[in-house]
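name: query_chain
kind: protein
chains: 1
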Amino acid sequence: MTISAWRKHLTRPSFTSVRSRRSIIIAIKIVHSVIFLTNSLAILHIFWVGIHDRPSRWTSIALAAALGESAIFVINRGRCPLTELVEDLGARSGRVSDLFLPRWFSDRIPWLCTPPLVIGLVGLVAGARRRHMAGTGVSFAAGGRPR
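structure:
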């Protein structure tokens, strides 16, 4: 079931009472918070392993989480679909970052998270390229270019 189908189902007037809507809002905000924190940790992991060129078994999972969430964010024009769902259910605000971050900081999360993600991705690609070139017997000069 898609997010829009869930939204239609959950926001039907006959579906829920005010009390059960509050419970649904709280449950969605908890799930949303877990997704937000997981994605933040994934971005930090990608940044760390990218700058240190030390990918681990968790790197592919972190890449899937961060890039998947980024794609969803971009497809929805910078707004999480869970935020809209919670607001459709009657919440004053569906943003979960406001629960534990100051508003000025949470408004800038995409601008603060994008550079570390990009730096980590560039580092991972450069490290993979170096390892690939080393495996083919090509040696590197001081400038990082193959001889």
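note: The chain has a mean pLDDT of 80.
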